[in-house]
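Dear Dr. H.,

I hope your travels went smoothly. While you were away I took the liberty of generating a structure for the chain from your last submission, since the lab meeting agenda had it listed for discussion. I wanted you to have the full record in hand beforehand rather than looking at slides cold. The sequence, exactly as received, is reproduced here:
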Amino acid sequence: QGDGFSEPEVEEARACLFALRSVADYGYRRLEVEGDCLNLIGRLQSKAPPNNPLGYFISDILSFIGIFDFIVWQYIKRGGNKVAHALAHLQPFDYSVRVWSEG
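The corresponding predicted structure, in token form, is as follows:
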């Protein structure tokens, strides 16, 4: 596309924003966010939204995270992201919200 992003990256960013809003509703304030989209994680770590549709969501994420006491972004290779893989392969017609919490 020439803009330095792909549509799946935008969907990853949308999912990240949704997840952050959800965990905020549950009262979590210290987060370790893992993702397998290297470009998105890198942009969030550097706090550098690009000037394209992906940047719109990254800007929203960065403005939202001020409510958290601590947040760290971790890139996890797709093969090592077993939770995301399991959630992505659930029944396609199950639209319920699922939250994975460790601890």
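Two observations you may find useful: The two ends are 41 Å apart (CA to CA). The mean pLDDT is 85.

With kind regards,
E. W.
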